[in-house]
Amino acid sequence: MLTPLSIPSPPVEWQGLNITAWLSSTFGWNLPFTIDIRTYALCILVGIVLAIIIASRRLTRRGAEPGVILDIVLWCVPLGIIGARVWHVLTHPGDYFYEGADPWEVVRIWNGGIAIFGSLVGGAVGAWIGCRLSGIRFWTFADAIAPAMLVAQAAGRFGNYFNHELFGQPTTLPWGLEIEFSNPAFPAGLPEGTLFHPTFLYEIIWNLLGVAVLLLLERKLTLQWGKLWGVYLIWYGLGRSYFETIRVDPSEIIFGVRSNVWGAWLAILVGIVIIVVQTRRHKGLEPSPYRPGAEWVPPSAEVDSSNTYTDEELEGEEAPAATENETIEPSATSEVGAKS
């Protein structure tokens, strides 16, 4: 008898490490506070680092100062996290606003609960502030980070896998995801051993495929002025609008549609508007990744003369030697000596 294939969920112990308990059991150190390292958080951090590296290299190739992206992400990341939390809370009000609820639970992001669409809104605000301060064109930065965002989102989805969460409807497909019957998110009424759609895997594949599509379109069509960012919004919105419909986790329903599906549709609409508006406004290529008057000048371009000398070369010399096309005029002293 053949055993059906499936994707096993990782052990629950892999969801994180209690540093306080580990230090106590290993070294006998009893800390007065608790330190937890969550695998989900590590996946998000890995995604952020990958996005920064990729976008930085893309900006540098456009002519931006190496490392300037750090001046922008210092605003993007915190505002993106705040936006992600706000979006989640607003789309799951029943989890935070009820009689007897702890009001501080709204800000306890370490207990879980962030939304990508909120991070896009908050991150965009942070990007605009960072670009204004650094002199980088906002749309240049947006195009540079567009494929990097898909890489970051793919890395972050592994966190859902480790957390045994946000899986899809039951399936008999050979790549069905195993979820333990004791999981609070296990749908009531289904028998133990039911397999579910691995929506985390679907989105990872969709996002990585999107990276290839964006890079190909950028090369073939020379998409600038934010148009590549528009393509990113459309691509991600299309995939998310489907994946969201097969998930079984609870969500706020607006006019019969999950709130995140509305967010995906909004992303598609915004992406289309950006492409149409920017195509009409900008016919040519971006002249520079910097706004006029804020251009960065490489150190090598600040040297006026091509002839430079080191201290060692000039040591003991009163003047540079004459070239073979130059003559040294005799000084007044030498003329007097010649007459006498």
Automatic annotation (TrEMBL):
A 1,2-diacyl-sn-glycero-3-phospho-(1'-sn-glycerol) binds at R157. GO terms for biological process: lipoprotein biosynthetic process. The chain crosses the membrane at residues 37-56, 68-89, 109-131, 138-156, 200-217, 260-277. It is found in: Cell membrane. Pathway: Protein modification; lipoprotein biosynthesis (diacylglyceryl transfer). GO terms for cellular component: plasma membrane. It comes from the Bacteria. Residues 290-340 are annotated as: Disordered. Keywords: Cell membrane, Lipoprotein, Membrane, Transferase, Transmembrane, Transmembrane helix. Belongs to the Lgt family. Catalyzes the transfer of the diacylglyceryl group from phosphatidylglycerol to the sulfhydryl group of the N-terminal cysteine of a prolipoprotein, the first step in the formation of mature lipoproteins. This is Phosphatidylglycerol--prolipoprotein diacylglyceryl transferase.
